Structure prediction request, 249 residues.
Amino acid sequence: MTETLSLTWRQYRLERRMFWRNPSAAFFNFLLPLLFLALFGAILAGDQDQLDVIVPGIAGMAVMSTTFSALAMNMVFLREQGVLKRLRGTPLPTGAYLGGLAAHAVTNTAIQLTIVIGAGAAVFGTGWPRHWLELAVFVAVGVVCFAALGVALAHAIPNFDSAPAYVNAVFLPVIFISGVFYDADNAPAFLRDIAQALPLTHLIDGLSGAMVTGAGLADNLSGLAVIAIWAVAGVVLAVRGFSWEARRG
Prediction:
């Protein structure tokens, strides 16, 4: 057990080093949400109600981008380049490798949320979170949900060249339907119905309750249940479809 934890830590450190050596990945993960915040902050300056919607929305988008999008792209690359196959033939335990990847994604999520929450409190007037426990619970369940769904989606992507198209075909519609940039309650009825079936909508609602409105965890239990259901489905699909080897033909 101790050896596995030590190997997980080493793999995690390796993932962090490789991440920071890729400036484009760092930009997408950390600067892009700030650009969105700056853009919408300039457009909505003086409208605090709208800013209170945007900041939790961007925070929810950050969770999805650092887990779902990042892992889907990364798993396809590793699989198609034969990295996963070679790793399986090494003494490195599978759990240690996947644990290092997961910890890397969680670290990116934590940094991203810190940046968004800090910017919201310092610049956009949303203040600091009112319920830290609720924030932690929704972020934890959201990370598990979107990480599992990202790995599951990777199984459906045939090669790395098509990975951006597959990932964005899911990511972009979800962030627009789920109310990242507007209050989803003001959307047309059919969009609201779709949004209520998606986990990102409920993650944003939970983050909004913790960061802005002050709604407690008990007020968002149904939303938490929806995210948990998606998480279970994602884990099942991720495990059943996992492949160490690149596809042929």
Notes: The mean pLDDT is 85.
